[in-house]
Amino acid sequence: MSWKNTKQNSFADSLVVEHKSLSELDDVHNIINWNEIEQTLSNLYSSVRGAPSYPPLMMFKILILQAWYGLSDEALEKQIARDLMFRRFIDLSLSESVPDHSSIWHFRQLLNTEKLLEPLLEQINTHLEQNSIIVSLGSINIIDATVIEAKQCRKRKGKNGNNTQDKEAGYNVKTAADGKKKTTYGFKMHANTDEDGFVKKMTYTPGNVHDSKEFDKLLDISKSKTCGQVFADSAYANKNNNEKLGKENNKILHRAYRNKPLTKEQKQENKQRSSIRYIVERTFGLLKLHHGLGKARYLGLERNKARAQLIAISHNLKTGMNIFKRMRNLRDCCIQ
What is the mean pLDDT of the chain? Predict the structure, then answer.
């Protein structure tokens, strides 16, 4: 299947008056090698029959915009049609038609089916590392999980009398800061972030899966003998994790047990570790505040996992773009 040529400028494009608001997202192109991303996506459309389709790189950029601005598929279609900055970012000429919401939905499903979102997150992180935005040498791991309420979280009867709750979600019971237990029916996003809040790796599970179950997947200890220092709350504190990490890398909060309270030294260490561990909680807060992660948009685990992965990718791109701007401003000041 061939791809549409959406980049060729038309007479209408030449009439657009340049304005700084149109170039707000241009710095993304300075930190990411889109040619390599395009190669990763190049085999998505393998059929030689059918009408030309929209380029997969353009469709991927559209999903990035969706995650950045928290838009539904229908709202995203409308925004691309009327927003010059959106068209500029995805290289879509004014003379070209806009992908409809069903095309956007199908492409997101295709990325998930082909399991490309995790490799894309790793690839983008590699590009950020190559541009000295992500620091890998001596990087730490800050691990935690956050609860995401299911789209249909309450027990209600449907037309056929069956429960309409999302069958792939689960109940999570958590003790809040005020000591009261809070029950949420939904999912969990488990993440490993660095000290700058970049999402290094993430997994997605039903809400009833214990945080510690995803510990090894987030660290990939099996692939590397040294993973660096690991900061996490006391839910991850157990004998197995202590042995895996060793004394030097283990920065998990100490846990008090019955008849074995924390010592003064352990309390002090917990305080120091918490001052670093909060970064992952801040990242979750940003994802929920700006990207709507706190509420699932779809039914089923896989669709919501794909959405969470796209949100993580977009968060890393936005964070990387902001750091790049600060680096450039600092460089310009030094030159002056």
Answer: 90
